[in-house]
Prior knowledge:
This protein is an alpha+beta fold. It folds into 3 domains: 3-54, RNA-binding S4 domain (Structural Genomics Hypothetical 15.5 Kd Protein In mrcA-pckA Intergenic Region, Chain A, Roll), CATH 3.10.290; 62-125 and 212-239, Pseudouridine synthase I, catalytic domain, N-terminal subdomain (Alpha-Beta Plaits, 2-Layer Sandwich), CATH 3.30.70.580; 130-209, Alpha-Beta Plaits (2-Layer Sandwich). The chain has 6 helices and 13 strands. It has helices at 3-9, 15-23, 116-123, 143-151, 189-195, 228-239; strands at 27-29, 32-33, 48-50, 53-54, 62-67, 97-98, 107-113, 131-138, 165-172, 175-182, 200-209, 212-213, 223-225. Helix 1 crosses helix 2. It is elongated and about 70 Å long. Bound molecules: uracil. Uracil is lined by residues 102-103, 106, 188-191, 204.
Amino acid sequence: MRIDQVLAHAGYGTRKQVRQLIKRRYVKVNGDVVTNHGLHVDPNTDVITVHDDEVTYQKYVYLMLNKPSGYITATHDRKHLTVLDLVPDQYVHYRLSPVGRLDKDTEGLLLITNDGKINHMLTSPKRNIWKTYEAVVSGVVTEKHVEQFRHGITLDDGYKTKPARLTIINIEGNRSLVNIMLTEGKYHQVKRMFQATDMEVLYLKRTKIGDIQLDDQLDPGQIRPLTAEEIAWLESLKEGE
Ligand code: URA
């Protein structure tokens, strides 16, 4: 990989700014001053320094956000705050994207990464990765609904969903607290599945994607990098390719 690319990825500025650092002889590879910004290096084995500080290079970034209500799942938007507005500046140069989509009023687990392959794998319905949501629904959810969801629900546009796992957690008056697990993510899917059974979702929060559980230490709006164990699970998906 070219040294200017490595440094730009690692947060030392734009390609142009990085070339200035090289021109001023601030960059060394294995102790030798770099004069050619096109120099090929292996960021995993070569020791790269800027102002004699060692560069830690990371190709992929994987973040967990506890998405608060009020943010749209997009990389940028003229009118609304996006989930990328919650990502600390240190990650700005990584060209991150959210994995899948949560509605503006949906809360909970959102992964954000620059690993396009993983992003696709987690969202592709073909991979059958279970996404778990907690929902408060207006109406009394019964075993009949559990059965209907298990067989798939026909949505307003005629699409029949893949089987979903619905679990009743608690019923209070005319409100039900449920868990729902899906392997696909059609537009407003959970809300539309309940609509199709004459119920309304009042609150929705994603709690799990595959083996990755929303960290209960993260307040809404907080973000943390995935742990080594969580990344290992993502890597295991690539192995199954
Ligand atoms: N289903 C929905 O209806 N909304 C979401 O945000 C996610 C799943």
